[in-house]
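Hello,

Following up on my earlier ticket. Below are the three sequence lines again, exactly as submitted.
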Amino acid sequence: MTDRRETWLFLLPGLALLVLGFVLPITRMLVLSVQGPDGFTTDQFARFFQDGFYPSILWRTVYLSAIITAVCAVIGFPLSYIMARSGPRVRLWLVIMVILPLMTSVVVRTFGWMVLLGRNGLIASTLRDFDLVGRSFQLMHTETAILLGMVQVLLPFMVLSLLGVIVRLDPRLEEAARTMGCSFLQTMRMVVLPLAAPGLLAGSILVFTLSASSFVTPALLGGPRIEVLAGSIYKNVTQTLDWNFAAAQAVILFAGIALLLVPYLRLGRRAHG
Amino acid sequence: MVRAVPGWLRVGAWVFVALAAVFMLAPLVVVMGVSVSASQFIAFPPNGFSFRWYERALGSPAYLNAFWLSLNLAVLVTISASLLGGAAAIGLSRGGRSGGAVETFFLSPLVLPSIIFAIGLLMLWSAVFGPTSFQALWLAHTVIAIPYVIRTTLAVLAERDPFLEEAARTMGATRLKRLWFVTLPQCRPGLLAGAFFAFNISFDEAVLSLFLRNPNLTTLPVQIYGQLEFSPDPTVAAVSTLMILITIALMLILERMLGLTRFASG
Amino acid sequence: MTATARLALTATLCAFAAPALAQEITINSFGGAYEEAHRKCVIDPFTAETGAKVNIVTAYSADAFAQLRAQKDAPQYDVIHFSGGQEIVGASEGLLLPVTEEMVPSLADLYDFAKAGVANGEGPAYQIAAVGLVVAADKVPSEPTKWADLMKPEYAEHLVLTNITNGYGMIGLLMLNQIAGGSGDDIQPGLDAVSQLLDAGAVVVSTSPEIQAEFAQNDAWIAPYASDYAFTLKKAGLDVKFIQGEEGTPASFITANLVAGRDNVELASKFIDKSLSPDAQACFSEALRYTPTNSKTVLTDEVAADVVYGADAAKGLMRFDPRVIEANRSAWTEAFAKTIAR
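Thanks for your patience. The regenerated structure is below:
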């Protein structure tokens, strides 16, 4: 057996499952995007771009996902480093802290945020006590609310991706850098960060794609006035029953994210592949 | 001599961890508070104190059945996704030029909103196999869990020492032995993180489970969702609190039995 | 012979050829207190009478319809219940089987408006939810009496509107549209009214639990919504009142539909017949305050005081033409989304 054949042997079961269990079913749905009453049509795509409404939803989806990913990275990197370099007991409790939000049902967890961010919530009423804001002020139904709620559930994906990589870094590398005169922050920037890059890449890809394709948290925290594309797709599938347009939106979302991800993945492969 | 980590950074680190903890846990504290409320509607701060929502959740066969179904499913998905995803990651890490395209392909289930996959799969499954079944759900969850395993495993494999395997080869180790003694230990932290994600994704997944269900196939998130319209009482908060407690207990037991953190550090 | 008629014939033939092949049927219900009432009023008596098992899937109308459409090749429901007008689309796509008085004798006793869609292959309405103003009686300074009061500036910051992706939200918008001078051909006045209310501080939500949260948590005073949910909130201990606006009370129908392509039509028809029976309807009214659709239903005084009851009263309920709603749903939903978008 050649090495090449062995590589394919590893890939094959997963590939087969993906083709039969994913590609076939979604094709069935996605072809609807170009099917009209009289055969092939691009009407659904024209409808998407007919005015600024849907493109603005797409744009919001992309930039919110980018901000969520950036915030997760900024919080996740130091947190994973602290976890990696602390004792097993502290690390365990920190892991528990990070993953707990994942273990509660999304609707219930979102209710927790509704209480904190709503009109009579902790934050709004404190600000109102100081006369800083009016009665109608609330953080609920804002992009900030989506950001907070999404970072809370997606942080574990960033942290655990990073942790797996950082714990395997040899602390002696850092010591060596320090011995040679680097400050702590310089060591971080020049030794730890570059070596943790694959973990950061893995984490940000998971976080970015998950935030672009999820809709329950954005729908509940952002409210109907701040739509994201996945929410609009869900609405078209279940409420307006317009599956052709839903499929077209899915194709656009898919293509948009893929376009953004391919260069990112290539970057990762060049640096570390 | 190595200069010590500056004092302000140590303090800063603890402040940072404390803030992160508040951010991550504050909404959960609200949920726990609601779960012991005496009033019938979901409100915070809780009015009065009562355990009756726990009695209700634990006394309801619907919740218990849904819990066991979700647990069974999540365990099976963890196994299947780790096997398939882990193997694919090993293959990808060895792959040559074509690896990039294949890797992107493996990530595609993450990119598409699950509602599209759910409806597509339901259409195809009905046409080919008829009524939905546990297998349909298992397949669907495995498909969406595999990308996590691949991503986390690839991340740790990117940092591996390729000469280890080469050395094993020169010393005459067979393919299987190299896989078992060299490659798998290299994958371990990533595979573990991926397996954990797979479990979680399956356990928390609501959209695929919502559309693929039948009378005997209601997972816990779907059961919770189904109660909200006409009985939005604190039972759902009690169920979530129980889940939080079970998670903590499970993590502590795993730590004691397996040394989870040591395991994660490879 | 039309496609639906042919389907009906085949199904009837099948029903005779294989009498009660499987003594069980599968239905959807709406969870929680609704499902409890459903069991008590319809399912348990049905099982007691026929010995058949009823499998329940908790699925809200929109999700159930998406499932029904995707599972066209192998439907799992025998009887499917809708509260958002989905039966119109379902019938036109051939997913449903028309019912007749031979199959469902109780149809004869139904008010005419409750079986108006039967001729088109839609299922009959077995319950009506009235849409009006849900008011926090303990908080609102002065109670509103008519729909036009929604526009009063003093309520605006305490007003909760519902997205029209929700069936009751759709009816609420059409009512606002009507008082603002719009019609089925022109909902712009309604959209303008919504936009004015939002500017004044009203919030808009999408689901029932969010409405509860607004009342319980965020000092909401008024929400245009349905009588069944007002009663659910009241039972949960919130001090809310259901007020019928002077301009009229629009109705939302909950229908029971036979699914095409299943093999126990006979049993399923019996189930629908049971849902339409006076006993089941009285029981449902008592549990969740729905308006009965069977003219023979007798309610106790206590329940009758809370619901729109009796032939004349029920006839007084308004109904926005469901066919107009279906024809425009997609366009209206998009226009509404554009109106409320920040």
